[in-house]
């Protein structure tokens, strides 16, 4: 196998506030292989979102490097698609136009853009809502369009920062299933951030557990559940074992934050 | 019905609002019909109506409305055309904000009234001076309102533009401006209300035409009915422009209403 699709080397981030310097990420190394689905989990404030933001090129690292296909990352670019937790569709455009907006940079005719947008809406099951504006869509639908938009211009890497974090538990499950299905059909390198352990285990090939601030990589759990994943797997002993392993690891960090080590 | 945040039917809402209008009108009618107040201080609604009808029949009312509207149209447009791009720029770039915002904030607190003598010295008493007063009274407020509208555009939405490989200029024109547009429209609607105040002020002090001018001359001849009639006309005109702006805003920014 060739070199990793995404390489993170010695990534360090220091936030300077008026009173102090906060070390958010401390010398993180991580490799993600081509078409691998990797999830970062950790307590709030552990730097997982910061890491994703730096990979996206939206934040500047203090030191260290990020490489995509061996090329150093300098700022944001179309080789990396991003989906945020917040709803980021443009409210003045319909679902279809939101996707077409992302395709403006491609060499395509208007008709080609429209048919590409329709194709992606169908992929996320929203072809009937092509002409709806975001205010007519549920939160789950909006995030599906946002995913379709990020996939539309065929980025090398998809970066997802708690994309289902604002949704209710049931919608969330459906979104995880949908994303897994889409990903299994159209493989792509994904870096996904969440603090939902079940979500992480269900969708990933590999789960990276981060320590409390300063964020470092604590453990890695390889998820060797077969694909295609089915929701029934959540009840299997194999799933349970992986879930416990990841949960146990994060729990130690949470206990430390809440200072409950001796109590519980 | 009387519970904090409790809802009422539209029918009830309109009913209560209409009742208050009728009540005040009735009070006015009773007080003047019994001459509890001298007509020179407070003429009755019928006198006011007759006077307005006379002025309407002679064409004076239409002429006055037209000239005041013309002054607002020019003064307000000049303010808006400058305030929107400047407001968007200082809302998007901190350096521009540093250059413009403190200065604007300072000027904003200077009473517009105090500029009247100065503008007369500079521009005389013709239309240019009226434009100037309307401009001074609205521009500085508008800049700050538009800056605020622009700042409310979520950073994540701007970041999406960046990840799509868009340049700053393109993000400004294709993301920040359309995202802020519904708010900007609302700010313009509010500042248009103030423009009505400034045009009348300018016409009260030094003018030979317009609604404000007619009010001043009426005062000279103790035509209280004209004064009250014109104040009511001004209120109505303000209400109409506001409703027109609201209607257009709803039409243009239907997508901004929350439906879910």
UniProtKB/TrEMBL annotation, chain A:
Keywords: ATP-binding, Nucleotide-binding, Transport. The keyword Glycoprotein does not apply. One of its GO terms (molecular function) is ATP binding. Residues 6-237 form the ABC transporter domain. InterPro entries: AAA+_ATPase, ABC_transporter-like_ATP-bd, ABC_transporter-like_CS, ABC_transporter_ATP-bind, P-loop_NTPase. This is Unannotated protein. It comes from freshwater metagenome.
UniProtKB/TrEMBL annotation, chain B:
The keyword Lipoprotein does not apply. Residues 65-249 form the ABC transmembrane type-1 domain. It is a multi-pass membrane protein. The chain crosses the membrane at residues 12-31, 72-94, 106-125, 194-215, 227-245. Keywords: Cell membrane, Membrane, Transmembrane, Transmembrane helix, Transport. Its main location: membrane. It is found in: Cell membrane. InterPro entries: MetI-like, MetI-like_sf. Pfam families: BPD_transp_1 (PF00528). The keyword Transport applies. This is Unannotated protein. It comes from freshwater metagenome.
């Amino acid at each position: 196998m060739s070199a990793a699709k995404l390489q993170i080397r010695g990534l360090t981030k220091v936030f300077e506030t008026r009173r102090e310097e906060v070390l958010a990420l401390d010398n993180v190394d991580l490799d993600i292989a081509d078409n691998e689905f990797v999830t970062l989990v950790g307590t709030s404030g552990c730097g997982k979102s910061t890491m994703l933001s730096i990979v996206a090129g939206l934040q500047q690292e203090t030191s260290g490097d990020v490489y995509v296909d061996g090329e150093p990352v300098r700022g944001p670019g179309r080789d990396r698609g991003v989906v945020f937790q917040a709803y980021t569709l443009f409210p003045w455009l319909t679902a279809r136009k939101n996707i077409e907006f992302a395709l403006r940079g491609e060499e395509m005719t208007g008709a080609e853009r429209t048919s590409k947008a329709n194709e992606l809406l169908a992929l996320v099951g929203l072809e009937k809502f092509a002409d709806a504006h975001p205010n007519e869509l549920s939160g789950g639908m909006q995030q599906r369009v946002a995913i379709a938009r990020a996939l539309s211009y065929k980025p090398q890497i998809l970066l997802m920062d708690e994309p289902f974090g604002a949704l209710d538990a049931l919608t969330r499950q459906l979104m995880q299933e949908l994303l897994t299905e889409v990903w299994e059909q159209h493989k792509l390198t994904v870096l996904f951030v969440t603090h939902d352990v079940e979500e992480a285990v269900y969708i990933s090939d590999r789960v990276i557990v981060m320590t409390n601030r300063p964020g470092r990589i604590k453990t890695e759990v390889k998820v060797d559940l077969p694909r295609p994943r089915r929701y029934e797997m959540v009840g299997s002993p194999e799933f349970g074992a992986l879930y416990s392993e990841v949960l146990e690891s994060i729990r130690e960090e949470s206990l430390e934050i809440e200072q409950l080590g001796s109590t519980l | 019905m009387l519970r904090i945040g409790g809802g009422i039917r539209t029918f009830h809402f309109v009913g209560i609002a209409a009742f208050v209008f009728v009540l005040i009108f009735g009070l006015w009618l009773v007080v003047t019909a019994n001459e509890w107040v001298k007509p020179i201080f407070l003429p009755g609604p019928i006198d006011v109506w007759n006077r307005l009808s006379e002025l309407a029949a002679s064409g004076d009312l239409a002429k006055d409305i037209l000239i005041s509207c013309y002054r607002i149209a020019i003064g307000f447009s000049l303010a808006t055309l400058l305030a929107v791009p400047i407001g968007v720029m200082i809302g998007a770039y901190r350096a521009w904000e540093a250059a413009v915002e403190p200065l604007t904030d300072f000027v904003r607190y200077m009473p517009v009234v105090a500029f009247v003598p100065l503008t007369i010295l500079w521009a005389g008493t013709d239309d240019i001076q009226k434009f100037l007063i309307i401009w001074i009274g609205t521009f500085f407020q508008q800049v700050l309102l538009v800056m605020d509208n622009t700042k409310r555009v979520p950073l994540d939405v701007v970041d999406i533009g960046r990840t799509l490989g868009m340049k700053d200029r393109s993000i400004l024109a294709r993301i920040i401006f359309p995202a802020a547009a519904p708010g900007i429209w609302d700010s313009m609607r509010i500042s248009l209300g103030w423009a009505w105040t400034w045009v009348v002020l300018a016409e009260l002090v030094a003018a030979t035409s317009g609604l404000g001018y007619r009010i001043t001359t009426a005062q000279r001849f103790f035509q209280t009915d004209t004064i009250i009639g014109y104040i009511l006309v001004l209120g109505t005109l303000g209400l109409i422009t506001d409703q027109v702006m609201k209607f257009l805003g709803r039409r243009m920014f239907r997508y901004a209403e929350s439906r879910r």
